[in-house]
Amino acid sequence: MDNLVVGRFRWYVSPEEYPDMPQLVLHMVSQVIGMQEVDQQKMMEFILMVKKCYRNNPYHNFEHAFNVTHCMFNILQRNRDIFIDLEYKSLLISALCHDLDHSGFTNNFLQLTDDTLAQLYDESPLENHHYRTAMLILSICPIYPNMSQEMYKELSTEMKEAILATDLASYFKFRIKLMQLIQENQLDWSNNRHRTLCKAIIMTGCDLSGSCKPFLVAKNICENICKEFYNQGDLEKQMGLVPLSLMDREKSQNVPEDQVQFLTVVVLPCVELLKSILPNTEDLFLLATSLRETWQEIIQLKGHKSWRQDDSVLAVH
Ligand SMILES: [Zn+2]
Description:
Layout: H1 3-6, H2 21-32, H3 40-52, H4 62-78, H5 85-97, H6 107-112, H7 116-120, H8 125-140, H9 149-164, H10 168-183, H11 192-207, H12 215-238, H13 255-277, H14 282-302, H15 307-316
Zinc ion is lined by residues 64, 68, 98-99, 166, 207.
Keywords: Hydrolase, Metal-binding
Binding site for Zn(2+) 1: 64, 98-99, 207
Active site: 60
């Protein structure tokens, strides 16, 4: 395993390396957590069971979980002095588990169709399900055999906060709070509430890191998201509803504009915030900035006026 390659944010697993993903996860675990307190056999079983519990969706699949874990690995490795032992143990595993058993539909759709998950959980039905599934697998494969009951409880709380934070609806709330703390120069890593906000933004940053890759990689990821969204859009049409533009396959010519808007409104503010709390994550910001420039060039080449992007910038400020 070449640490120099995997240790870069821009790295992305290639199709030839897909069969190696479980082994690569084990490598990342051994680097971040260390193997002294880990049952290696159980950890391997855990990783394989997690892999099995990801469905074969175009986007929300094990490859996405792996990519998010890789981004988390890089953030944790660059900031060895910031986190405590339990956080290394929870954040990397949360990244791996954060979309377990994802059905390929959004929370809105689950609520709209009164899906069982929406009946079970009032808020963030998907993320609650991912967390519950993670805890179920952990109970079957106890990867930390020497962990006290009390510590295990803390681990489970950390994982719940981390996985629930990947609901973008929560991200917008956390972002406002964290931005305020930074603007007032009040951010204090020793304050637990502040720390939780930082970890939530880190989880979102990792989840969105598919937009922090070189253009051809990011374009491929974007096509997979579109495939998943169009499936939902088709069902919405069958139900007599009007899907969002980015879920409507007949509006696929809007993809570059939609990407610029998503990068401007969601991704860039997140990785910029991440850069201000952890300056050594700057590459994520630079990669997302360059990706937006490429999409903008494509819009200009098509002769489209990128008015939607200007709109978004106005809306953000
Ligand atoms: Zn995700």
